[in-house]
TrEMBL record:
Organism expressing this protein natively: Nicotiana attenuata (Coyote tobacco)
Protein name in the entry: Hipl1 protein
Principal location listed in the UniProt entry: membrane
MF-aspect GO terms: oxidoreductase activity
Membrane topology according to the record: Lipid-anchor
UniProt key word DNA damage: no
Top-level taxon: Eukaryota
Transmembrane region(s): none
Short name of one Pfam family: GSDH
Cofactor: pyrroloquinoline quinone
Keyword Signal carried by entry: yes
GO cellular component terms given for this protein: plasma membrane
Similarity comment: family membership: Belongs to the PQQ oxidoreductase GdhB family.
Length: 680
């Protein structure tokens, strides 16, 4: 029995290790899924509400506990609580360690008083109590290097002292991590958060751009693209420099207009640069094509028999045939245009390969943004429900359809064409093994999350990459912001935001993940009742310290911005308020005003962008605006200090991530410099 248990235990540890990373946060289960309300209350583990166990897992834990044959009541209670911690909605964080997998959660080990240490309490209670198949046994050897006796069952058989035990299993809670104290995790609220008094903007460029991506080299250079399909490389001026951004539209970095079909709802929708762009020169564009005009615009239709859809029965949309237009993700390269990719100022005009191609049944709601995951390096593709009003074909909830989904694919390990055909892929990519289909065989392998209507601008929090935040455009009533998790179902079209949209008894068992933020159409645009959200970023720049840590987002009609603050930290619970905004009187380019209004005339808010300094930019129909110091608009921020403009960020290391300066190295170099000057 011990051998079977050890084998199972090792497998669980390896599984947990494959999922964990040092920055897990917010309510998240060990398989990176969001907690859910079980269909039946848990009978063994005392957890209520959204949890990380269902009744089957609960029964499994009960049998595991009963097999331990613990005779002491106090020790039995402690071990049960430890086993059940895997059901806690924060279990991903409780089990996470930087050094590897854990068989039990991090046990709170207070350094202030041992009386408050749950780890010490477990030792004191259980040290001399036999535990069959103990979860506290070292996996291979003791610190002394001696192999363990498989018949051992006392803590004192495994560990020489309480100190050794708590060094192995203990830890502390702080702002960025959690530990288990024997009870369900309950986060303490932060001090009362003061909402910012306002957001100050400066206009640094004219022109209408849809996408902004920082250069992977970590410098203050960025890429912009517009809807027709051109990409430019530009340098962001220093904060407080008074300079406008120079962008020569006559000399684009890349021109894809021959491949891009442009219309009000179509065009180039996204771009992404490979995390190792400095080495491999690879970048990717997401755009639409018209098969009536381009022979290369050829792919399977998203309306097909696999998803229970017949293209011949779809009513024509704007007098266009179903799947006349396609969504494409294509790969391009700068290799050979410069001594190394980071110095390239022009891309090769020819396409390297098509990563993804899919015909669209209708002409709206096709998303199109693409992003690389900052930790896993995979490509995320945001796809809308296809555009039928109310998602009449239920594409967003259909697990065999890729419409209304966020996909996650591997573009570094591309199978042969024969394998791609056999696997039924939609292009040149492979599927990560830990995609949700590994646990839900009904899902198409590419799917990471489902139940979205039209995701318009997603971003990863640069300080907490587990916060993958997406804005989803609503239909008639509600605009929403979601935290995207592995396998999460965000409800559309059974729900529009938190409101029931369709009444279908077959979907009563659905457990949707409701938005963390949002607003009603009627709240912001009473004249026409229309709205369309534009997702932004968690603000991580030092420029405006009163907005720092807030998630910024806005509405297409450019009359509203919001700053959302999380409280408690890492809880996934946000409070938001509309934030006043204005344009600095000393803006490098003149900011015109809306007639009969003090608001700057932004036109339409298309998107947000973030540079390598984490300064946030707003891309609008009238130009590019940057968030600047609040005092430049006479907004009061008690945290703001007068400072000189910062120098450009350091170049990135070879892995494409921004380098963080090592203080000790800087100090050594400083001393060497002065020593050299003294000798000379």
């Amino acid at each position: 029995m011990n051998n079977h248990f050890n084998l199972l235990f090792s497998f669980i540890c390896l599984l947990l290790y494959s999922f964990f990373n040092p920055s897990s946060s917010l309510p998240l289960c060990t398989d990176l899924r969001a907690p859910a309300i079980p269909q039946k209350p848990l009978a063994f583990c005392p957890y209520n509400g959204r949890v990380c166990c269902d009744s089957s897992k609960d029964l499994q834990l009960q049998k595991l506990f009963e097999g331990m044959n613990i005779t002491d009541t106090a020790c039995s209670s402690a071990v049960k609580s430890i086993l059940c911690s895997t059901c806690d909605q924060f279990s991903a964080e409780l089990f996470k360690v930087k050094s590897g997998p854990r068989p039990v959660p991090v046990l709170c080990n207070s350094t202030a008083t041992s009386e408050n240490s749950f780890c010490s309490s477990v030792w004191d209670t259980c040290q001399n109590i036999p535990i069959t198949n103990s979860p506290f046994a070292p996996s291979l050897k003791t610190k002394a290097g001696e192999s363990q006796n498989s018949n051992s069952s006392l803590l004192t058989d495994f560990w020489q002292s309480k100190t050794d035990f708590c060094e192995a299993f203990g830890g502390n809670s702080d702002k960025d991590s959690l530990c288990f104290n024997g009870k369900q995790v309950s986060l303490k609220k932060n001090e009362t958060l003061q909402p910012p008094n306002g957001m100050c903007l400066e206009k640094i460029a004219d022109g209408a751009y849809l996408n902004m991506v920082p250069h992977p080299d970590g410098s203050n250079r960025v890429f912009f693209s517009n809807q027709p399909g051109k990409i430019w490389l530009a340098t962001i001026p220093e904060q407080d420099s008074g300079e406008a951004m120079e962008l020569d539209e006559s000399s684009p970095f890349a021109d894809l207009t021959d491949d891009v079909y442009l219309d009000a709802r179509f065009g180039m929708m996204g771009m992404a640069f490979h995390p190792n762009f400095d080495k491999n020169g690879r970048f990717f564009a997401s755009f639409n094509c018209d098969k009536a005009k381009s022979p290369r615009c050829a792919g399977r239709c998203a309306c097909n028999s696999d998803v229970g859809c017949d293209p011949s029965k779809i009513n024509s949309d704007d007098n266009k045939q179903p799947c006349q237009y396609h969504t494409v993700v294509a790969e391009f390269s700068v290799n050979g245009t410069a001594p190394n990719p980071s110095k390239a100022e022009k891309a090769k005009p020819s396409e390297v390969r098509r990563i993804f191609t899919m015909g669209l049944p209708f002409t709206a709601n096709h998303g199109g943004q693409i992003l690389f995951g900052p930790e896993d390096g995979y490509l995320y593709i945001m796809m809308g429900d296809g555009g039928s009003k109310g998602d009449s074909f239920n594409f967003a909830q259909n697990k065999k359809s890729l419409l209304g989904k966020i996909m996650r694919v591997d573009i570094d390990n591309i199978p042969s064409q024969e394998e791609i055909s056999d696997l039924g892929h939609w292009g040149n990519y492979s599927v990560p093994r830990d995609n949700p289909y590994s646990q839900d065989k009904d899902l198409q392998p590419e799917i990471w999350a489902l139940g979205l209507r039209d995701p318009w601008r997603c971003s990863f929090d640069s300080e907490r990459p587990s916060y993958f935040i997406c804005a989803d455009v609503g239909q008639d009533q509600y605009e929403e912001v979601d935290i995207i998790t592995r396998g999460g179902n965000y409800g559309w079209s059974m729900y529009e935001g938190p409101f029931r949209f369709k009444n279908a008894s077959a979907d009563d068992s659905m457990d949707p993940i409701f938005p963390v933020l949002g607003y009603n159409h009627s709240d912001i645009n009473k004249e026409v009742g229309s709205a369309a959200i534009s997702g932004g970023y968690v603000y991580r720049s030092k420029t405006d310290p009163c907005i720092y840590g807030s998630y910024l987002y806005g509405d297409l009609y450019a009359k509203n911005f919001w700053a959302a603050q999380e409280n408690p930290y890492n809880s996934g619970n946000f409070t938001t308020r509309g934030i006043p905004f204005s344009c600095a009187h000393d803006s490098p380019l003149n900011c015109s005003s809306v007639p009969n209004s003090p608001l700057p005339a932004l036109g339409y808010i298309f998107s947000f962008g973030q540079d390598n300094r984490k300064d946030t930019h707003v891309l609008t129909s009238t130009g590019i605006y940057r968030v600047v110091r609040p005092s430049r608009c006479n907004y009061t921020c008690s945290k703001e200090t007068v400072r000189a403009a910062e120098s450009p960020g350091p170049s990135a290391p070879s892995d494409g991530h921004i380098a963080k300066p090592d203080f000790c190295l800087v100090l050594v170099l400083y001393c060497l410099l002065h020593l050299t000057s003294f000798i000379l």
